[in-house]
Specification:
The protein has 367 residues and is α+β, with helices and mostly antiparallel strands. It is built from 7 helices and 20 strands.
Length: 367
């Protein structure tokens, strides 16, 4: 654990070690997972590697005191798995270290780190009436300036997942309706960004390249209560907040289908030079005549022979209209969404564009 330094209420960017000893010689002896402040000002640090709650309290410099859990912590029933607290000693001197926690008896010689539960299986705290009302007001404002066909949905709350005012988005646009197939459960902010992207980027590019309009977006995934990539150890996905849409295909009014998987530009790499055969190379060197034995006629012939041409270098092929279309709409989407991931991001996105409205401190993520 570290302590962050602040100056005038703002972090300075500096930090210092505050509670150490959990990792020794690259071996984890503990896993601190939470912190709380007691009524007496002491800090309580929960550590699930050994079923320990560490209590850190203030005391005069130069002294060492044995610490114990406060009364209110015990009465709240927050006891470790062995129904007793392990005590830790604390000193201010930088050379002092707390004693190593005992290994978990259930898993001797190994860490007791458990796989976190899926986000949908943790305790659910329902949305408050105020949260739902505020979200609906923002939704009404966001949708007031766009044309769409949608169905308001009840608030979704499933563990850590959900949204207070989601909608079921069926289509966008008026003159040329763009069907969302299947309909997507999204937030109103995402629906508005999709509308802007379609009107200002997707439709003009389709008209210019194919003389046709997009009439359908293939929805690969919208709301899905999971972590990123379905991993137990990744952060919560924006899909879990109804704040993301995966688009895998564009369908034109002409009947033409443009898939991300098949249309994304393919780049050919330069072929590697063949590795010389050591046996043949030694034979050539052995048969090579010396300079004294080369005749004038042989030398003249050698000068007349042109050197072999270098092998052709592979280059990026000229993009076809479909490749140009998917690349353009992907790049321009970066101006509308907080996150845009495509085939160049990783293999998990080789067949679709991931679009979400995650707010970031700096610029959006575009890959």
């Amino acid at each position: 654990m570290v302590r962050l330094r602040f100056e005038d209420g703002k972090p300075t960017g500096e930090y210092e070690d505050f509670l150490t000893g959990f990792v020794i010689s690259n071996e984890a002896w503990g896993h601190p997972v939470g912190i709380a402040v007691g009524q007496d000002g002491a800090l309580f640090v929960t550590e699930d590697g050994s079923g320990t709650i560490w209590r850190v309290s203030y005391r005069k410099a130069g002294t060492t005191a044995e610490t114990a859990p406060s009364k209110e912590l015990a009465t709240e029933g927050r006891l470790p798995r062995n129904d007793k607290f392990r005590m830790a000693q604390q000193a201010t001197a930088p050379d002092d270290q707390p004693p190593l926690p005992e290994r978990n008896p259930v898993h001797p010689g190994a860490s007791a780190l458990k796989t976190p539960p899926p986000p949908g299986e943790v305790p659910t705290i329902p949305w408050s009436d105020a949260e739902v009302a505020a979200a609906k007001a923002k939704c009404t404002e966001a949708l007031s300036s766009i044309k769409l066909n949608y169905e308001p949905l009840a608030p979704i709350k499933q563990g850590l997942c959900g949204a207070p005012a989601p909608i079921l988005l069926k289509s966008l646009g008026s003159d040329t309706k763009v069907e969302i197939d299947p309909p997507a459960t999204v937030t109103c902010a995402l629906a508005k960004a999709l509308s802007t992207w379609l009107n200002e980027t997707v439709q003009p590019e389709a008209k210019a390249l194919f003389s046709s309009q997009v009439v359908k977006l293939q929805n690969a995934t919208s709301y899905n209560c999971r972590n990123r990539y379905g991993s137990a150890y990744q952060p919560l996905s924006e899909h879990a907040l109804a704040n993301a849409l995966d688009v895998s295909e564009f369908v034109l009014a002409s009947g033409e289908h443009i898939t991300v998987l098949d249309s994304w530009p393919k780049v050919l790499s330069t072929p590697r030079a063949p590795v010389p055969n050591p046996a043949r190379e030694s034979d050539v060197k052995a048969a090579k005549p010396t300079a004294e034995k080369v005749s004038v006629v042989t030398a003249a012939k050698a000068k007349a022979v042109a050197p072999p041409s270098p092998p052709p270098v592979a280059s990026e092929p000229t993009p076809n209209p479909k490749a140009k279309f998917v690349k353009h709409v992907h790049d321009e989407a970066c101006h509308e969404f907080g996150t845009v991931l495509g085939p160049e991001a990783n293999d998990a996105h080789k067949n679709h564009f991931h679009l979400d409205m995650k707010e970031r401190r700096r610029s959006g993520l575009c890959q």
